[in-house]
Structure formats: structure tokens, C-alpha cells
């Protein structure tokens, strides 16, 4: 039975997702060991390493952030992404945008030159406690994802009535 080594990396900094620099190596994990529990743990670490590698190789979409008194609106450019390949989710205090673009080539043709070779987008935003994560809405139109993040009621501006005395 052959033994392969899988490198596991340390946690990925969302600010540098998409850079091509190699991640720091935490260690090597033997795959294909005789112990079933160790093999299961090795497989889980390999999947995690594969997921981190995918994050490292993701395109970081440009995003416009516009704030108004009622909340924040994000406009993310995701050309080539159909709605079914878009994954927008909140995990704890993070808003995560992940998507795969679909670049269909006509049958019988192949690209002689491609400027975009990665087909996965990923962008992570840390949400403020002032935003209401339960009321987030999103719309994808012509390759632009619009995400509305409303402010929580306690964070919205309000007028205070002053009584005459």
C-alpha cells in the first residue's frame, strides 16, 4: 500500500484570498494508513486542505459598498455566474459570497488564449452587530449581485420628540 503525503495549511486570511503565494505548511499527514480512524481523519484533513487550496485560488470579485441611513448595499461583479452556481450565506458574523462561473464554449472550438482561467469567486465580509443578518436580501441581474444589508432597528437613526415644559 502506497503512502501519500498531504500538506495542510494554516487558516486562510480572507483579506488575501485569491493571492498566489503559497500558504504556510503546518505539517504532513500520511494517507492510506492501516488504522481506519486515522484514515478517516486523514481524509477529513485532505478535504480541508483541498477546500483551503480552492479558497487560495479563487478570484476576488470587485465589490462596491454603499451605505445609507437604513443599511448597506453591496454590488459584486460576478460575470458568467448563473443563479444556481451562486452561494450566498451568513456564517456567524461573516457574509460569504462564493460562485462558479460558467464559460460555455461553442462545440468544436477551444480557447487559444484565456485571460480568466480560474472559474471560482470567493469574497468574505465581516458583519457589524449594527446589521440585521436575518433581513439580508439579494438579487442577481446581468452578472451583478446586489446584496442589501439593513441596519438593525436599534442602529437606525430616529427622531426624538422634545416636549415643551
Major sheet details: 4 strands, antiparallel
Number of helices: 1
Radius of gyration: 22 Å
Q: How would you sum up the global shape?
A: elongated
CATH class of the largest domain: Mainly Beta
Your description of this structure?
The structure is a single chain. With 165 residues, the protein is mainly β. The chain has two domains: 53 residues, no CATH class; 93 residues, Immunoglobulin-like. It is built from one helix and nine strands. A four-stranded antiparallel sheet has the order 3-4-9-8, with no helix packed on it. A hairpin with a 2-residue loop joins strand 8 and strand 9. It is elongated, with a radius of gyration of 22 Å.
Task: State the gist of this model.
The chain is mainly beta. 13% of the residues lie in helices and 35% in strands.
Amino acid at each position: 500500500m502506497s503512502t501519500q503525503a498531504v500538506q495542510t495549511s494554516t487558516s486562510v486570511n480572507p483579506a488575501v484570498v485569491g493571492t498566489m503565494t503559497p500558504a504556510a505548511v503546518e505539517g504532513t499527514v500520511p494517507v492510506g494508513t492501516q488504522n481506519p480512524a486515522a484514515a478517516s481523519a486523514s481524509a477529513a484533513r485532505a478535504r480541508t486542505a483541498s477546500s483551503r487550496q480552492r479558497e487560495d485560488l479563487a478570484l476576488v470579485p470587485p465589490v462596491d459598498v454603499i451605505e445609507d441611513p437604513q443599511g448597506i448595499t453591496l454590488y459584486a461583479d460576478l460575470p458568467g455566474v448563473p443563479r444556481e452556481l451562486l452561494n450566498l450565506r451568513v456564517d456567524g458574523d461573516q457574509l460569504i459570497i462564493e460562485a462558479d462561473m460558467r464559460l460555455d464554449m461553442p462545440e468544436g472550438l477551444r480557447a487559444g488564449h484565456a485571460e480568466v482561467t480560474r472559474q471560482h469567486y470567493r469574497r468574505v465580509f465581516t458583519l457589524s452587530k449594527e446589521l440585521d443578518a436575518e433581513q439580508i436580501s439579494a438579487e442577481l441581474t446581468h452578472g451583478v449581485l446586489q446584496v442589501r444589508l439593513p441596519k438593525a432597528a436599534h442602529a437606525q437613526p430616529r427622531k426624538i420628540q422634545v416636549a415643551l415644559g
